[in-house]
Structure formats: C-alpha cells, structure tokens
Amino acid sequence: MSPEPLTSLNSISSTCVALLVGVLLLVVRRWGKVEREQEMCYRVREIPANTTKADFLDRFNNHLKISGSEAKTDMRLTFACSSSKLRVATFISHEKPPNLGYLVDTGFLGVTPLSEADDAVVDIIAVPGLGSHAIGGFKAKSTGKVWLRDFLPDDINRIAATRIMTYGYDSAVTEPNAKYSIKGLAKAFLDSYRAFREATNTSRRPIIFIGHSLGGLLIKECLSIASEIDGDPQYSDFFKSSFGLMFFGVPNYGLRGGKLKEITAGQLNEQIIRDLEADTESEPTSYLRELAARFIKCSKKQKPPFQIRSYYEQRKTRTVEKLADGTLSRTGEYCFMVTEDSACRIGFKDRDHDKQPLALDHSDLVKFSSPADDSYVRVLNTLNTLVGAASDVVDGRFSSKTELSPDEKRCWRELNKPDYKLFKNDTRKLERPVEGTLRWLIHDQESEANFKPDSLQKKDFITWRDSNEQGCLLVIAAPGQGKSVLSNFVVDNLLESINGSENKKVIYYFCNVKEDVTLRTASTILRTLIVQLCEDRRLFLKLPIGFRSNQGRDSFHLAQFDDLWTTFNDLIDTGVYSIVYCVIDGLDVYETGINDLLYQLKALMDKKFCRLRLFCTSRPSVKERECSLQPQKSLRTPEKDLQLFIQARLGEFSEEFNADMKNTIQEAVMERKGTTFLWISIFLRKIKNLRYLSVKRIEEEIKNIPQELDELYNSLVQAIFSKDQYDVAIMVSIAYSKRPLALTELETAAALIANPSINRWEDCLSQKIQLREGRVRENLGTLVDLIDNRLYLIHQSLRDFLLQPRNWQQEDMKLKIPDPERALGKACITYLSFEDFEFTTTGTEGKANKLRDDGFFDYTKSFWHEHFNNVNDIREDDGDVIQLQRILRGPNSRLLLAHEMSICDIAIMFDAGWLANLLYQMNHDALCRRF
C-alpha cells in the first residue's frame, strides 16, 4: 500500500475526530459543565406573589442569555401559590438551571403545588411510599412523565377547578443518623399540610388524598390524629374537609419487604420496618392493628363518610437486597409486596369503599406513562367522580343541622325581603318599654285597683308561656294603651326565656301604621313567620322546592294565602320544635285576608295537640269577637307605669322646662283618669312645642286639651288645616299614600293637590314648596314622625281618623277635599299626563328623564291606579278620561309602557278592575280601540 492513501486516511480520521469532539462540545455547552445527564424536575421557591408565569419565564431566559445559553421553550413549567405572599414553580430540565436569585432544589420535601386553577375548589394531594421521592415516586419509567403535573391538571379541571399537590418526606431507612416512625411522619405531614392550607386561605377546601404504600398509612394516621383533637378549629376544618381517599397498594395488614428487616437490624430505623413488615402468616403487626382500630373509629365520626378507593397490584415486584458494596438494589426475589387482602382490608365494609385491581407491580401502581394509559383512564374516572361530588358534601359538613349553608343563606335572604328584624330593631318605629314598666307581667307585684277580673295579669302570661295545655292568649286594648310596646316586651322575654334552645322558637310580626300599605295583608304576616322558621336549616329544607329555587323569591312573594298557610302549618307540624311561640301585634290594623288568618289560627288552636303558642293583640273589633280566640284579656295600664313613662318623656325636654313646669305637667296628666300612653305622648308633644313657656301658660294649655282621643285629633287637625292649604295637601298625601313618602315626593304631591289646575311640569315646579325637617316638625310635628327623610303618622288610630272623608271638609279648612283618596290619584294621573312631556317632539326624551328623576315618578308609576276604587272615581268633566288617554294610549304612554299595549293587556298588567269596567260603561273610542 502506498503512503499517499495512508496519509489521506489519517487526515480524514483526524477530521472526523475533530468534528465529533465539536459536536459533543456543542451538545454539552448549554449551561456550562454538565452535572446531570438524566432529566430532572426542579422546584423554585420564594418567588414573590406579584410575579406572573410570563415574568418568571422572561427572567429565566434572560439569565440563560447572560450565561451564553439558548432560551428554553419546552420546560413543562408549572406555577402556583405557596402562600399569600409567595409562589412556587417547577420545571423539567436535563441540566442544572442558572442562578435565578430564588431558592432552587430537587428534594421536594414538604408540600409542593404542581398546578392550580384560578378558581380552584378542590385539593388533590399525593403522598408517595417508603423511600420514594415526591416527584420520582409518580414518574413513569418509559416516558419520564409525571402524571400529576404533566396531564392530570388538564383532564381533571374539566370537571372542577382543582389544585394538585405532592408531599415529600424523608424515609430513607438506611440513613444511619435518622430515626423515623409512621406516627411521627404522619404528624409532620398533617402539620405541614395544615400550615400550607392556612397560608393560602384554603383551610376548608375539600381534599382528595392519593396515597401510595406507606403514604396511605400516613394519610390514615393523620386523619385519625385530626379526629381525636377537640377544640382546635384547624384540626376540625382539616378533618371535615377530607373527602376522598385513593389508596394504591397500601399495606393495611403489612408488606413483604424481603430482607428489609435484615438490612435495618440494629439501626435507628429498625422499628419502622418492624411496624410495616408482615410476618409469614400475613397477620398485621401490633401497630397496624392499632391504626386500623383508630381509623375505623375516625371513619365513623365522618358524616357523610369518607369515599375510599383501594387499588391492589396484580404483578409481582422484585424485593430489595443489600449488595456487597453496601448499596441497596431491587434484585431480590419476586413477590406481591402488598397482597390484595392487605391492600383492601380497611377494617370495614360499606358502599363507600371500592376495590379495584391494576395490572401493575407495586412500584408502578402510581406511575402512568400517558393520558391513554388504561390504568390512568380508570383512575382518572374515579378522580372525576370524587372531584365532582366533593364540594357539596364538604359544604354540608360545615353547615350545622340548624345553620344554613352559604347558598341556602343567599336564598333565604331573597325570601327575607323586607328584613323582618328591621322594624322591631328600629326604636323610631317601634318603641321599647320604658325602664321599669311592664315588670308586673313577669314579677310578683301588688295588684292595683284598676285590675279587674278580665285584666291581663302575670298569671295569665306565665300560664300561657309555661303551660303545655294553653295555646293562645289574645290581649284586647283601646288605641294607644301600649299594645305594640307590650308585644315587644313579650318577644324579648320569650327570647330570653328559651335562651338558645334548639327545641323552642320565637317568631313575631308587628302590624303597624309605619309599614307600607301594600304589605298590610295576612299573606305578608305568613311570609314573615315562615321566613323566621326557615332560619333553621331543618325547616328551610322542608320548604316547597319552588320557594327554594333560583326563582324562589318571586314564587314565594307571589304565593297566595292558601299556599302560604299550608306551608306554615306543615312547618309547625314537622316537630322540629316542640314549642313555637308566635307573637302577632295589631290584628285589627290589617284588612286583606285577616279574617281567613284568624279562622285558620282558631282551627289550629283547637287541635288536641298544638305546638304553636299564639300571643296576639288587637283593638276591640268584630273580627276578634267572631273568631273567638280564647282566652281574651284586657290590657289596663297600672298607674306606676304611666308615672314612669311621663318621667322618662319629661327627661327628654329641654332645659327651658324647669322643675316647677315639669311637676305641673306630671300632676295634670295623672289627675286625668283613663289616660293612655298615646294620649300622653300627643299631649307632651303639644306642650313641648309651645313657643313661650310659663307655668300659667302650661296650665291653660292643659285645660284646653280634650280628654277623648278623637276630640284631641280633631282639634289638632283643624288647627293645622286652618293655616295653609299645603298642610292639608301634605296630610292627604301621608294618610292615603300606599307607602311612606319622602319629603321630595311630598313636595310634588302637595303642589298638585293644592293646585289642581296644573297640567305642565314647569307649572308644577313653580308651585312646589321646599320641605325641610325643622319646618315640618314645627308645622306638623304633633301628628307625624320624620324617620329617614320620610313622614309617618304617629299612630294607626290617627290614620283611621283621617280616612273618614268628613274630616276633610270642615268649615275653617284652607283647602276642602271632598274625596281625599281620589285627590291623590288625580295628582298621580295629572303628573303622568303633563303636556310638556309628549313623545312627539325632538328633545322630549331628555325632559322625560328629568321627570323620571323626580322622586314622585316612582310612586305614580307603581300606584296611580290604586287610588281609584271604581268607575265613578273617573270623572269626564274633570279631564280624567283625557289624561288616561294620554297616559295609556297617547303621547305620554312611553313614560309607563315600554311598548304599545291594548287596554285589555294594560288592565291586566295593572290589575285594575275599574279600568276594565270603564270600557263597558263609557264609550270612548280613544280608549277602546284594539280592546
């Protein structure tokens, strides 16, 4: 062979070697010196919470550029919160990452979140087996995939938003300087996971545990520990939150560890192997027997029970043996490390424990290669089921048998409108007893001369309250004798007497002049009583489904009396409460449906066994006499209570009233026989408003004040009505309005009533007066209360007085009103038919919006039709028909109606029978077209 070819071959060989070295250098030069050839999962901690996933990637790649390396795009990066202030990331790489300024490790000790949906509602936490790694213990050998982080998040979040975590712990049994125990490892796991949940404000989030081998025992142990600790809310929350347990090859009755006992003999960790390893007869160790008993006890405490799924291996696994060089290797004999019996012997049998085989060895039970892996598909299906059910079950555990869940509470609030507590708790609307009064009702006290045989006394009330035989007590009293204050006192006494008892309940309703007229019905009373009963979850769940649905508020508030009574009666009869105290104040105040309510209550009281204890108050009336609720007692106020009441009110007088003046007032009142709290209140208001004070002037004023209530009302009303036509118009509006009117609404209403010729908004504005609190109190303060910028009559008896039409046509009135109800209705239709709000000219919409902004608009659009009782109230000579045409069919219709409607539909919409009758009795083409 000639030397030339050989030289050429040597040259080629040198070139190939150089190229190969270059290629190798390129391959290994990613982050400098190669320290790891195998793909590793890294954890990055202490990332500030305001760092986003994109921010982290930018920082990571910037560090790579600085070190001369290429940016990484395929890191399989995960990003989640580890506390309210910090985040944690994990990523996969063949090489050690650059210095990022954060804490980086591969040990994964403690809790590591691998994924977290933004709106996560369920936790999934995986605990590996003996000597396993928090990531490596779940890593498929064939693909290197960690199913918990690489494909489970995408699959499981289709069912519910989850947070997936893994827990790492050191259990290297050959470590010469460490001593572990199963209970100690479980306590550490419990403490670590509790702390993590507290730090992330998720202490009540449902938990699904995944436990492999020893990891399953740690889960059983930590649950047992949590169930045994009383009084600590963190342990209680953890236990109640625990829902699903997925056990993979868990050695409940021990495992077969081959030569592990020999390997650990004489070492610190010898005991943990002795606690785990089954003997030749496969009998459990003493520790495992104890744990089984404690876990059974723990499981019985959990209601509803844990959902447990046990998977067992169908392939044998090589056991561990110690090599000559001292290292451990799985080169021993094949065996079932955890038998089917051991893996599935939880200690009890029920429908909530399912057992399933997997065609895998012990190590591979929790290592799935891909989303298509059959074993993974089966496990995922189980996880989906558990995740889907977890929230409802755990939410229920945190709801006591009486306490509503958050969703139930939201529904209940919709039913509780208006809030039943507001009226009772507002002392401006419902007075509380003056200190020291009404003590005679519950304490022994010298009986007074005015107590007659039919008078309400202590024995009547105590017998009603405490006896198992008597179901009803009806208290009758004339107006102003303190019935509402009495009822308020009774409710407070009952609440104090039952002292939170779960077997007794107090419900109440106050019929009062300061309520909206539209709510003064028997159905409203029943709704309020039902709502109070259903504060208890046991009764809430007994409500008809329609009342508890998403549309429940509408169906509940539109329900008819018969349906409401049936519901109320059914709730009482459930037996949840042995006694239900029911206080209804002012039965005489309401008209609509009250007779039906009285007769139903009477029928209920007549039952042989009735759980309802009914306390009612009323003025003497035909209704109460006819219904015959028994016994009936009359309220007669002791003189001592009247004295205490006067003293308390005089204490509120300004310093202008000296001691002599106050004594004169008190003596004058007490000299008058048969006085009531109401009469005294009005009397004191009148005295308090005197412009100039002296004892003589006070004495003269007292002499001129009528004794009878109606005479007193007449003198006060006429004094007001004789001063200014606007005072008359304001009082009409207050007395006949369907709900309390605000001062701004009263300004408009009074202008229209006092000036009936107004037909334009601009004219109305020029006639409106300004109502200010001081002026209102000065002119009308004897007869009205100003509460939250709304005017209320001081008492139902005053409203009854003003509802008599003759009182609006006295001789000296500045404005006589023959039909006050119609006068307010006329003001409403005049307002809605203003000529300068036709929708036929440019710019009218803007003007109409100004009208809608006026407070009176909301009232008129809701109640205009309710002030006309029949066809005779519609007067053609007063322009009513023309105004109705403008409102309903003409240029002003868009103020009320979103689109054109037939008169028939309008009559149905407003539920106005008189409007339908008008079509038959009057021939007006403008109104009747398209009927």
Short description:
By secondary structure, the protein is an alpha/beta fold.
Explain what the structure shows:
- With 931 residues, this protein is α/β, with parallel strands linked by helices.
- The protein folds into six domains: 1-30; 36-106, 2-Layer Sandwich (Alpha-Beta Plaits); 107-255 and 282-314 and 340-397, Alpha/Beta hydrolase fold, catalytic domain (Rossmann fold); 406-634, Rossmann fold (3-Layer(aba) Sandwich); 639-705; 710-840.
- Helices cover 45% and strands 12% of the residues.
- The strands form six sheets. A seven-stranded mixed β-sheet has the order 5-7-6-8-9-10-15, sandwiched between helices. Strands 17-18-19-16-20 form a five-stranded parallel β-sheet, with helices on both faces.
- A hairpin with a 4-residue loop joins strand 2 and strand 3 (86-93).
- The longest helix has 26 residues, at 3-28.
- Residues 1-36 have low confidence and may be disordered.
- It comes from Conoideocrella luteorostrata.
- InterPro entries: AB_hydrolase_fold, NPHP3-like_N, P-loop_NTPase.
Which properties best describe this structure?
22 strands; disordered N terminus; alpha/beta; P-loop_NTPase; NPHP3-like_N; five-stranded parallel β-sheet; Nephrocystin 3-like N-terminal domain-containing protein; repeat; AB_hydrolase_fold; 931 residues; elongated
- Integer count of domains: 6
Can you identify the CATH superfamily of the largest domain?
Alpha/Beta hydrolase fold, catalytic domain
Structural class: alpha/beta
Per the CATH scheme, the topology name of the largest domain is Rossmann fold
Per DSSP, the total helix count is 40
Total beta-strand segments: 22
Question: Kindly state the mean pLDDT as a whole number?
Answer: 85
Q: What is the overall silhouette? A: elongated
N-to-C terminal Cα separation, in Å? 121 Å
CATH architecture identity of the largest domain: 3-Layer(aba) Sandwich
Radius of gyration: 42 Å
* Low-pLDDT residue spans: 1-36
* Share of residues in helices: 40-55%
Biggest β-sheet: count, sense, barrel? 7 strands, mixed
Protein name: Nephrocystin 3-like N-terminal domain-containing protein
Keywords: Repeat
InterPro entries: AB_hydrolase_fold (IPR029058), NPHP3-like_N (IPR056884), P-loop_NTPase (IPR027417)
Organism: Conoideocrella luteorostrata
